[in-house]
TrEMBL record:
Transmembrane intervals: none
Taxonomic lineage: Bacteria, Bacillati, Actinomycetota, Actinomycetes, Kitasatosporales
GO MF annotation: an example: oxidoreductase activity, acting on paired donors, with incorporation or reduction of molecular oxygen
Protein name: (2Fe-2S) ferredoxin
Keywords from the named record: 2Fe-2S, Iron, Iron-sulfur, Metal-binding, Oxidoreductase
Residues annotated as domain Rieske: 49-156
Domain of life from the UniProt record: Bacteria
SUPFAM superfamilies: Bet v1-like, ISP domain
Residues forming coiled coils: none
Cofactor: Fe cation
Length: 389
């Protein structure tokens, strides 16, 4: 009897055992066209956490930040409010500010033909404008971008009609903690920056989100974290959806690299929040971690289909930072977690274009949050005809 050799075909997602679910196919992490759709339908349509408000301390301070395909300019106005504009001169389109951060005394002046805008974006001067009486200065101010402040950060939205901030940012975050006041107890907006580390990760932003959403990998790659939070060693926790509060291990005194004591509990933190770690993801690009004596906030800046900058802030009580106390042992714990996570993401990125991953991989049951994230992403991308909503 002869048999016809057949080449093994990859298992289709439909053939997976019912307990396993397929991931997205590999090209979702490598295709520039899909990344462009994500820029348009996610980063340019949703509220995007752009800058820490306190980084713009004085009137005249400004920051430029990339949001989707746009450069956004955030300024502190003369009257002390934050404003956001597209970083584009209305004359002939020159980039108004090239620096990532800076400070002006009074106005922003375009380096090309010197059109000048005040910190509220109004066109206040332009050479020879008196000879052009028809120009409507009010109509040629900088293009305003919606801005809201929450947790001590400025969130911007490029959509013509931004979605409800209360529902899509505050509500979505709070819902995951299961208690409307839980996150407010930490008063993140009153905290001071103890440390900021920026990570340039050679991986698609979704690999970073997916990694944040599961703790299946915790026992393998996070020895320090699982020492402090023993439940993470079991792999069932969703590392970054810890709404119930993961309890510190016995003998652990604080959320530090060796489990040694941290600082005094933040004043608003409730008794039942003490010795616990909470974490939430605010889609699409923010992760917030809450522990009794500090808050860790990650902001992602997806720059290309295979490159994401992650800026991580460690926030403490102002008196801790003012006293010059050594925060390095608590910073070191999550810095190691970040380094371990981002190394894993960078290890995964090259394989996304392998034929082995053409149909994607699989999710085990404890990774079910990733499946929910994928369903959400597909809904957003499928909603393309309603771009801008
Ligand atoms: Fe800005 Fe001409 S492009 S002044
Ligand atoms: Fe991790």
């Amino acid at each position: 009897m002869t048999t016809t050799p057949t080449s093994p075909s990859p298992r289709s997602p439909r053939q997976l055992p019912p307990s396993l679910v397929a991931t997205l196919p590999g090209h979702y992490y490598t295709d520039p066209d899909i990344f462009r759709q994500e820029q348009e339908l996610l980063f340019e349509s949703m509220w995007f956490c752009a800058v820490r408000s306190a980084d713009l301390a004085k009137p005249g301070a400004f920051r430029t930040v990339r949001v989707g395909r746009e450069s956004v300019l955030v300024t502190r106005s003369r009257t002390g409010e934050l404003r956001a504009f597209l970083n584009v001169c209305r004359h002939r389109g020159a980039r108004l500010c090239l620096e990532e951060a800076g400070e002006v005394r009074r106005n922003l002046q375009c380096p090309y033909h010197a059109w000048t805008y005040d910190l509220d974006g109004r066109l206040v001067a332009a050479p020879n404008l008196v000879k052009m009486p028809d120009i409507d200065r009010a109509a040629y101010g900088l293009v305003t971008v919606a801005l809201r402040e929450w947790l001590g950060y400025a969130w911007v939205c490029l959509a013509d009609e931004p979605p409800s901030f209360e529902e899509t940012v505050v509500g979505a975050a709070v819902e995951r903690l299961g208690d409307t006041a839980a996150i407010e107890h930490y008063r993140a907006e009153d905290l001071a920056l103890g440390r900021r580390i920026s990570y340039d990760v050679k991986a698609n932003w979704k690999l970073i989100v997916e990694n944040f959403m599961e703790c299946y990998h915790c026992a393998t790659i996070h020895p320090e974290l699982t020492d402090v939070l023993p439940e993470f060693a079991h792999g069932y926790a969703a590392q970054y959806y810890v709404g119930h509060g993961a309890e510190f291990g016995e003998g652990v005194q604080g959320f530090t690299v060796d489990g040694g004591a941290g600082f005094a509990k933040l004043p608003g933190v409730a008794e039942d929040q003490d010795r616990r770690y909470y974490a939430i993801t605010v889609k699409p690009t923010v992760f917030v971690n809450l522990v009794p004596d500090h808050v860790i906030l990650h902001r992602m800046f997806p720059l290309a289909e295979d490159r994401t900058v992650v800026e991580c802030d460690w926030l403490y009580a102002p008196e801790v930072v003012a006293s010059g106390a050594d925060v390095s042992r608590s910073v070191e714990l999550f810095h190691r977690v970040n380094a371990q996570d981002f190394e894993a993401c960078e290890r995964t990125q090259p394989a996304m274009s392998s034929r082995a991953y053409r149909r994607g991989g699989v999710l085990v049951p404890s990774e079910h949050h990733i499946g929910i994230f994928h369903a959400w992403l597909m809904r957003r991308l499928g909603a393309r005809p309603q771009a801008g909503t």
